């Protein structure tokens, strides 16, 4: 404002909506009112107070409060991948921010242009980027700006030469205070939990070849947040189907000495075997829903020599494996 300060001037009162909000001393010509709420209309007058008690009041000026200060970004986001190839996302609004709505973006589309909730679902594609970005819009219509993409915890696998399986994943980066540790949950083929392991900060796990016949297993990794108020993040459930081990001898001696007397199909993760034997001209001479042949047909030994076999193995996962080859019946 502008004015001529008369003799006997004692101070200035700032009035907002007919209420004094500040008493100023000295010959001041400006005042900043920071105790306002954006998008509310305020009306101001200024009173010059004289020592004799008289008051000189200014004209009234009204305006709409606003802010250009960007709010804090969302920095605590959790993600859980579901069995139906969707992702549930959860986040917390920044402390002290008045949120009007969020804009949510996935890697390929806009999930929401305006939502006030703090959770949303998106599709999960194992062959694509599944990350999320959030823009917070406050009550003053000021955006925080898009955060860096937050990606769900995704587990991949590879088989080792010894039959074991190694699972690996990237560090989860969705939380401001980081990850406290990772946990691995192991399920059987019916998705019944069998075990859980705390892995600390490790980003991979090698599952040894099981002692029994557990051919099919499922695994899920959980990221545990350092901030206990946050929701843990869960990975995709990954299926491990270990290939069957099928051992087929190339010769046998059916002489009754209990040493290599039988042509037998053995191995691991074998549920059933169908065995067919052909002579050298391709004629079927023996067929059984079983895994062995004693070298006899109709109670008589077949001649020494080379025979053709066809083996159909069904494993515990329900897959069929076909093997063809020759077996030699040796002299007693």
Query: Please, what is the oligomeric state?
Result: single chain
The average pLDDT score comes to 93
What proportion strand?
Answer: over 45%
Radius of gyration in whole Å, from Cα? 39 Å
**Helix/sheet category:** mainly beta
What is the number of helices?
Answer: 0
N→C terminal distance: 120 Å
Principal-axis shape equals rod-shaped
Poorly predicted segments: none
Question: Helix fraction?
Answer: under 10%
Overall description:
This protein is mainly beta. The chain is built from no helices and 30 strands. The chain has strands at 9-16, 19-24, 41-50, 55-57, 61-64, 77-81, 86-91, 99-106, 110-115, 119-123, 132-138, 156-159, 165-168, 179-187, 193-200, 204-207, 216-225, 233-234, 238-241, 245-247, 251-252, 263-264, 266-268, 270-278, 284-288, 292-293, 296-297, 300-301, 305-315, 320-329. The strands form 9 sheets. Strands 1, 2, 3, 4 and 5 form a 5-stranded antiparallel sheet that branches. Strands 14, 15, 17, 18 and 19 form a 5-stranded antiparallel sheet that branches. A 5-stranded mixed sheet has the order 21-30-29-24-25, with no helix packed on it. Strand 27 and strand 28 (300-301) form a beta hairpin.
């Amino acid at each position: 404002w502008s004015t001529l300060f008369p003799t006997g001037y004692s101070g200035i009162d700032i009035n907002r909506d007919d209420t004094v909000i500040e008493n100023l001393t000295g010959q001041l010509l400006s005042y900043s009112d920071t105790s306002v709420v954006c998008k509310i209309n305020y009306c101001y007058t200024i009173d010059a107070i004289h020592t004799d008690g008289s008051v000189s009041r200014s004209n009234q000026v009204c305006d709409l409060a606003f802010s250009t200060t960007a709010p804090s970004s969302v920095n605590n986001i959790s993600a859980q991948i579901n069995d139906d190839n969707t992702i549930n996302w959860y986040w917390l609004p920044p402390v002290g921010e008045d949120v009007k709505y969020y804009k949510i973006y996935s890697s390929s589309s806009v999930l929401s242009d305006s939502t006030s909730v703090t959770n949303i679902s998106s599709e999960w594609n194992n062959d694509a980027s599944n990350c999320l970005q959030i823009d917070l819009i406050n009550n003053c219509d000021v955006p925080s700006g898009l955060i860096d993409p937050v990606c769900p915890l995704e587990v991949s696998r590879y088989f080792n030469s010894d039959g074991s399986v190694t699972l690996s994943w990237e560090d989860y980066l969705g939380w401001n205070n980081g990850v406290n540790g990772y946990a691995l949950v192991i399920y059987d083929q019916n998705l019944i939990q069998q075990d859980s392991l705390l892995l600390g900060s490790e980003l991979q796990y090698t599952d040894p070849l099981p002692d029994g016949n557990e051919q099919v297993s499922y695994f899920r990794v959980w990221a545990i947040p350092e901030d206990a108020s946050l929701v843990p993040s869960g990975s995709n459930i990954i299926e491990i189907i270990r290939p069957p081990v099928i051992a087929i001898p190339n010769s046998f001696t059916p002489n009754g000495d209990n040493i290599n007397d039988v042509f037998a199909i053995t191995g691991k993760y074998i549920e059933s075997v169908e065995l067919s034997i052909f002579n050298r001209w391709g004629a079927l001479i023996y067929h059984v829903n079983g895994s062995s042949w004693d070298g006899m047909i109709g109670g008589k030994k077949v001649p020494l020599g080379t025979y053709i076999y066809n083996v159909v193995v069904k494993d515990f996962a329900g897959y069929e494996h076909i093997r063809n080859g020759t077996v030699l019946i040796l002299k007693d």
